[in-house]
Amino acid sequence: MIHPSYAALATGEVYVPGLSAEHVAQTYGIAPHAISKLGSAENPYGPSPKALLAVREASEKISLYPDWTAAKLRSAIGAKFGIDPDNVVCGSGETEVISMLIRAFARPDDAVLMHKPCFPLYRIYANCEGRKPIFVNMGADFDPVMDEYIDALKTHRPKIAFLTNPHNPSGRMVSEADVIRVCEAAPPETLVALDEAYVHYTENPYGIGLLHRFPNLLVLQTLSKAYGLAGLRVGFGISANRDLILPMRHIKPTWNMGQMQIAGGVAGINDDEHVARTVKTIVEMRGYVAQRMQGLSSFRMVPGSGANFFLTEIVAPDLDSTLVFNELLKRGVIVKDGSDIIGLGSRYLRVDVNLQVHMDRFVHALEDIQSL
Ligand SMILES: Cc1ncc(COP(=O)(O)O)c(C=O)c1O
Q: Which of 23, 199, 216, 351 is least enclosed by beta carbons within 10 angstroms?
């Protein structure tokens, strides 16, 4: 018998993705157009049209191996942010870059710092590779309690310190001043990884602007969200310090970016129009749903989200997240059950901000459930 050597297999932790619309339509006998898919933080307007065109053209070339260095994509990203393309590493989604980061910069048993709760893959990948996740609990309404985070940096001296801005699952923001404090307080052996997967939805994105000031800072971004390319799988890491990038480019799977990912990524990263249209709608609808939810008695929106999702707190003691999640499914509304997000628990649901028809359907369904 072959024995797996991965520590994570013993933890049994797996990522639980949002359900697909097809699955819910089939299981509950609901017409596909009557489904509101609010569990995966996807783009309501679909893919960047420019990326779509480029992907179609690139599909003609899929008999050929892609450029394993993804030079065109790294150049496009570098040009966009005024950083040398050699200071960019691309991955099949940001998740691949996170996995490479953990393998490249932490050895077995090294500490990796993160908030609890956080994007589950920091923890799962750290466990998979036998690294030691260290958690900083969040405060009331998911305040990131940055004084405690900085204390933990000093106590545990992690090899990687993850910060997520806006935070997943709460959408809460870490201020620029606090990220600067973290970069300044980090021990010399600590790489600060600022995950900006949802940064386009915030008013003042600042991570890239800090890169030239802090050689220990690496920013992670993805084309899955505001660019609408979640199914294409394009993410990247960027730093002013090449030493934080080269090790990942050395260990990455050789042809990790296919012809369509490279071409679609180049077109997508330059489609400012699509991003602007998406962001405008999300910001409007975030305000709209916040207002609509004020009339609910059993549920409350956790304030302060700068992302395209928010947490709904279940305040009625006789309800819990799995019960409400299942009741919502019956009404064609897919959200994320807090019980499936490590460290979040059964009093919360994570809900996407989307078009008004979906926000209305979600609030109606909650009104219905609270009167059961
Ligand atoms: C905070 C955060 N980082 C990274 C990702 C991964 O994005 P990608 O689709 O690029 O792998 C997600 C996806 O949900 C996320 O929430």
A: 23
Average pLDDT for 66-92: 98
CATH top-level class for 17-46+273-370? Answer: alpha beta
SS3 221: strand
Confidence of residue 11 (pLDDT cuts 50, 70, 90): low
* 165 within ligand 1 shell (Cβ under 6 A): no
Q: What is the pLDDT of residues 109-147, one digit of tens each?
A: 999 999 999 999 999 999 988 899 999 999 999 999 999
| Tens-place pLDDT, residues 312-328 | 999 999 999 999 999 99
The domain spans of the chain are: 17-46+273-370, 49-270
Measured between alpha carbons, how far is residue 111 from residues 102, 191, 218, 305 in Å? 10, 11, 17, 29
pLDDT at 203: 86
Confirm or reject: Cβ of 43 under 6 Å from ligand 1. Answer: no
Is residue 95 lining ligand 1, measured as CB closer than 6 Å? yes
Ligand 1 nearest atom to the CA of residue 222, by list position: 10
Is the shortest distance between the CB of 222 and ligand 1 below 6 Å?
yes
Closest to 40 in 3D by CA, of 351, 361, 301: 351
Per residue in 56-74, pLDDT (tens digit) is: 999 999 999 999 999 999 9
Query: Is residue 102 pLDDT above 90, yes or no?
Result: yes
Q: Does domain 49-270 have CATH number 3.40.50.2300?
A: no
Q: Which two tokens stand for residue 187?
A: 């021990």
134 neighbors 152 (Cβ within 8 angstroms)? yes
Instruction: Kindly state if the Cβ of 120 falls inside 6 Å of ligand 1.
Output: no
Structure tokens at 346: 């059964």
User: β-strand 348-352 against 309-314: which pairing, if any?
Assistant: antiparallel
pLDDT of residue 14: 79
* pLDDT reported for residue 4: 60
Which one of 38, 90, 94 would you pick to mutate in the ligand 1 pocket, going by the greatest count of ligand atoms within 8 A of its CB? 94
DSSP state of 13: -
Cα 307 to averaged position of ligand 1 atoms, centre (Å) = 12
- pTM (2 decimals)? 0.96
Q: Are 227 and 271 in contact (CB under 8 A)?
A: yes
Q: Is 197 in the pocket of ligand 1 (CB under 6 A)?
A: yes
For residue 224 and ligand 1, the question of a CB distance below 6 A is answered with yes
| Tokens, residue 237 | 């890491």
